[in-house]
Structure to design on (212 residues):
């Protein structure tokens, strides 16, 4: 936040991923400009920036600042299951906190290649899901994930949101629309029969007591 002369009056870092980010500015800070600085060597991509003020004749009606809710990886080390296991690639490797994509380093899962192979994590509660990140295998076979489907399911097992992986990447990032409440996340392999290899799944969301 800068004043009319360009002096910085307040600043704060963004320390998590996913968004939206709610930064609360301390009382008494008056500003004329808001500036967002990129991380060195990183592109700056923002969907929207909103600034709220409670005072001043030149601004509209005061808008409440949303309560700050930190986004955390709600999939980390939660109970994980998968349709089948081969080569020692157990389901828990996909949410062990390690994104290493080399199968030899014991952090990538491995199913068989039957029909409808899947991996799934039970989030152990209801969460407003905001985003999902999936890291693929890197030592080979990354393309096995292309054509797979990511799903958010509610407590009853109903699919509330899904998206498809359509091209080969090291990291797949999904923004989940507001209002999607889920209790588990599932990755379905290509239904025609493909091995499922995932280095890591991270799920970002906010627990809401009212949702339980
Ligand atoms: Ca892992």
């Amino acid at each position: 936040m800068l004043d009319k002369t360009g002096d910085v009056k307040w600043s704060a870092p963004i320390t998590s991923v996913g968004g939206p980010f709610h930064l609360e500015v301390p009382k008494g800070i008056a500003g004329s400009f808001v500036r967002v600085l990129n991380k060195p060597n990183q592109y700056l991509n923002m969907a929207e920036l909103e600034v709220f003020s409670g005072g001043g004749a030149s601004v509209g009606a005061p808008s409440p600042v949303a309560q700050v809710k930190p986004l955390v990886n709600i999939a980390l080390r939660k109970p994980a299951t998968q349709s089948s296991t081969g080569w020692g690639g157990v389901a828990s490797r996909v949410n062990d906190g390690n994104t290493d994509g080399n199968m030899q380093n014991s952090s990538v899962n491995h199913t068989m290649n039957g029909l409808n192979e899947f991996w799934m994590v039970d989030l152990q509660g209801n969460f407003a899901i905001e985003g999902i990140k999936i890291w693929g295998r890197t030592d080979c076979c990354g393309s096995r994930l292309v054509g797979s489907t990511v799903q958010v399911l509610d407590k009853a097992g109903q699919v509330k949101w899904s998206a498809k992986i359509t091209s080969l990447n090291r990291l797949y990032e999904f923004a989940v629309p507001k209002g999607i409440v889920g209790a588990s996340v599932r990755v379905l392999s290509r239904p025609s029969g493909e091995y499922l290899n995932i280095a890591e799944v991270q799920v970002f969301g906010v627990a809401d007591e009212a949702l339980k």
